[in-house]
Amino acid sequence: MNARGLGSQLKDSIPVTELSASGPFESHDLLRKGFSCVKNELLPSHRLELSEKNFQLNQDKMNFSTLRNIQGLFAPLKLQMEFKAVQQVHEKLNNVTSRCQLKKKKERR
Description:
One of its GO terms (cellular component) is nucleus. It is built from six helices and no strands. By secondary structure, the chain is mostly helical. It is flat, with a radius of gyration of 31 Å.
């Protein structure tokens, strides 16, 4: 070994950060990231997170149940049928307008 010693040999070598894997096949680095827990990835991290995620659905259920208690069984069913009918018409109109836009683009060429 020369007078410079082992430290200079390590300094001249490739940095360790370049040796770490990256990309879609990267392995989990326990020293930097800690242990991974599959449960935390699948379930919400906070108990209110699931409630917030389904807020609109829960709000609709509550409104339909209130409407059912006040006006009877027919009122929420009628609203749901009307909503589905409007959605179907809206989808058909979107298809027609997109077809018209495609025809106009072809005519311009």
